[in-house]
Structure formats: structure tokens, C-alpha cells
Amino acid sequence: MKLYELKVEDEGIDEVFAISLVESPAIESDFLFFNKEEIRFARIDNEQRMLIGPILIPDKKILRIDGEGNPYHVFFSKDTVKKLAQNYLMKKYTDKATIEHGDKKIKGVNLVESWIKDGKLDKSNNYGLALPEGTWVGMFKISDETLWNDYVKTGKVKGFSVEALLEQKLVKASIIDLEKDIEDLTEGEANILLGQIKAIIKKDSRFKSKKRLEFESYSDYGEGVRNNAKRALEWAEKNGWGSCGTPVGKQRANQLAKGEPISVETIKRMYSFLSRHERDLESSKGYGDGCGKLMYDAWGGKSGLSWSRNKLRQLGLLTETKEGVPHYTKDGKLWEGPTHKTADGRLMTGATHTSDSEYLYHKEELNQPTITSTYPGEVAKKKKKDDK
Predict the structure, then answer these.
(1) Using CA atoms, how far apart are residues 388 and 14, in angstroms rounded to an integer?
(2) Position 46 in a domain
(3) Of the four listed, 122, 342, 359, 377, which is most buried by Cβ atoms within 10 Å?
(4) Whose CA is closest to 2, among 185, 168, 191?
(5) CA–CA distance, 240 with 250 (Å, rounded to integer)
(6) Rounded distance, CA 274 to CA 296, Å?
(7) CA quadruple 154, 155, 159, 162: dihedral, nearest 10
(8) How many domains does the chain have?
(9) Are residues 373 and 288 in the same domain?
(10) How far is CA 157 from CA 101, 127, 150, 296, in A?
(11) Residues β-bridged to residue 20
(12) Is the pLDDT of residue 356 over 50?
């Protein structure tokens, strides 16, 4: 079975961006939950509603299944676990939580303590947690009483699972009955691996029809993406990158600015990063205001978000229902509350229809006003056309 190490290669892109409460945690370790009757480490009068448990365990193999149904393992090194834990706090993600990796962030869940286990006297031992050195441990405060009663106390959720975007580095691959580091392959073993690769290619229908085989890559992302990357590079050339980005991120900016083809995997990373950080830039004052705007444009900016989303949809790699796509009110604010549908299928705010209900839109609908919108310029054009 293949083994991959999950790494932080690009500080501006790779990160844990949320922690999900799940029934079956991938690290196979449940959290403990305490209320006023069960807490023994402090005297309290009111129910605390606290969860404590491992968020990431270093060097633990985690089973995953790829898109073709093939199993493989991933793991985190101690250094990567520590870096992810530190970045999570530095980026103020302590209130970013979901249930079972759902699309919507939930409120009332806050990471109030976070530490890396270090030594036999680590305080995780006080809670009866037998965890390896270097484990990222977290304590969460659940202020939402309904969430606590309906999910935690009932056992619907039992542990933590991270939501992250990370680089995968192949460490080991199975060769016949042999599993070893790629770098340690002998010439004979490398020939065996090459033979297996050739056998896979020969089964490809494109090979049989004598079509050229190549890795899938695309460069049809347009001038908007290239120009955003160019602006970021030009600013960085005059002012320096400072603490923003890494060699990987800077290489990506150069690649986009030149219009070079990018792989499907890179497109996925582009979409994930740009979609997650789109709202974070609403208050940004420009490139000099931290790293956000600079790195956002280095990865193609809003044009890159639109292109990567459409490309993944075109390739069948981004399956969304209308309800699964983020919706916004007319003034461009993300709506995360209850919704209902009108008789003609339009989505509106509120669980039921009231005089305060508003229509909801996809982001691209707001960015591209149509002839039927209330956008003054369009109304004026239509009126002028009708007068003629």
C-alpha cells in the first residue's frame, strides 16, 4: 500500500483551516467530554461543556481511499503537526468548526486550549489520555447547549477530524511484494516499477489508439488570472515578499503570469485556497496590508477562483447541488442561516416566507449583472434601446 507524508510546503496555502466534530475520527482516538458531575480536575459550580482530545497524532498511519477506490496511507511528522498547530492559532481559526465535515461552519464551538504533548508530566496525562509525544491536543468549549445535548452527550460525535489543504509526498510504494523508500530503490527494482507503469499505460485506450499520452494540464485560464499574478510579482519585486509566501507560492505566481500549463492537482489547490479566503479580503486595503491580498492575487485572484471552479466542474471533479453552493444576499453578504424555496424554485432567506425574506444569489450572479437586474447601467441601456 502506498504511503504519503502530508507536509506544509507553501505557508500561504497549506494549512488546517477547520476542525470537525465527527462520529468516526480518522486518528481513531475519541475525545473525552466533561460536565459538572464528571470533571475532577477543578471545582466548578456550573456545567462546563468541555471536550478534550487529540487533534493530530504524529507518525500515525491514516487509511484513505483514492478516487478509483484504491486504499493508501498518509501520516504527519512531529514537525508538521507542531507547525499546523501553531499556524492554526496564529491565523485565529479557533472558532472554525463543522459537524461531520459539513459545508457550513457551526457556532458555539471554540478551541480554548491547544498544546503539543511534551514529556511524561504533560497535562494530557491528567485527563487519562495516553498519547504519543508530539501529539496536538485541544480543549474545546461548547457554548451551544443544543449542540452539546444532541451531538456530544448522545455520542453522535466522538472525536476530532481536521479539514486541511496539504502537500502529499510519496514516501513508499509497493513493488510486487516489496515496500521501501523510493530513494532506496536499486536499479533492478526501479526497472520492475518502470515495467509496472508501462503495463498500466498499455491498458489505456488512448495508447491502443496511438494517441499521445500526457499528464493532464491546462493553460486556458485567461488574461485575468495572468494579470493578477503579474501585479503580485511586480509589487513583490519593488517591495519584497517579506514574510509572505514560500518558494512554492512564488513559483506558482511566475507560472500563472507566464501562462504556463498547470496540473489538475494544482487547480484543486487553487480553488480550495481562493474559495476559502475570498471573504477574508473584504476588509483588505491592498498589498501592504498583510499577506492576504498579495498571496490571493499570486494564485490568480478572483479570476482564478472563477476559472478553477468552472474547470473542476467541467472535469467532473466539483459536484455541487444548488443548495451546496454558497449563497449570498443582494448586498453580497454570505448567508448561513435557514432557507426556503419559492414556488418557482428560487432560494430565499428564512425557514418560512415572511415580509423580510430576501432572494439569495450565487457569487457569480452578483458579479455579472444581467439585463433583468436593477443595476442602473443595465436599466439605462435597456431603456435607451426601447426608446429607439
Answers:
(1) 56
(2) yes
(3) 122
(4) 168
(5) 12
(6) 7
(7) -70
(8) 3
(9) no
(10) 12, 19, 9, 35
(11) 98, 161
(12) yes
| Residues 297 and 343 reside in one and the same domain | no
Quote the domain boundaries for residue 273. 218-314
Q: Comparing C-alpha atoms, which of 227, 232, 293 is closest to residue 259?
A: 227
Residue 328, all three cell numbers: 449570498
- The answer to whether position 224 is within a domain reads yes
How many other C-beta atoms can be found within 10 angstroms of the C-beta atom of residue 161? 22
Q: What is the pLDDT of residues 200-231, one digit of tens each?
A: 666 666 566 655 544 568 888 989 999 999 99
Q: Are residues 46 and 122 in the same domain?
A: yes
pTM score > 0.90 for this model?
A: no
| Beta strands 62-65 and 71-75, pairing class | antiparallel
Domain for residue 176, yes or no?
Answer: no
Q: Give the chain's mean pLDDT.
A: 77
| Residue 159 within a domain | yes
Note whether 277 and 363 are same-domain residues. no
Do residues 303 and 359 both lie within one domain?
Answer: no
The number of residues making up the chain comes to: 388
> Does pLDDT of 287 surpass 70?
yes
**19 & 159 share domain:** yes
Tell me if 252 sits within 8 A of 298, measured CB to CB: yes
pLDDT over 80 at 145, yes or no? yes
Please tell me whether residues 293 and 346 are part of one structural domain: no
388, three cell numbers: 429607439
Question: Of 104, 133, 168, which residue constitutes the final position of a domain?
Answer: 168
